[in-house]
Amino acid sequence: MKIALVTGANRGIGLAVARRLARECGHVIVAARRPEAGAEAAARLSGDGLPVSSLTMDVTDAASVRAAAAEVAQRFGHLDVLVNNAGILPEATNTDPAEVLDLAMFEQTYATNVLGPVAVTEAFLPLIRKSPAGRIVNVSSTVGSLAHQTDPNSPWHSMIVPAYQSSKAALNAVTIVLAKALADTTIKVTSVCPGWVQTDLAPGNKEQAPVTPEDAAEVIAHAATLGAADATGTFIDAAGAVTW
Question: Which end of the chain is more exposed for a tag (fewer CB within 10 A), N or C?
Answer without folding.
Answer: N
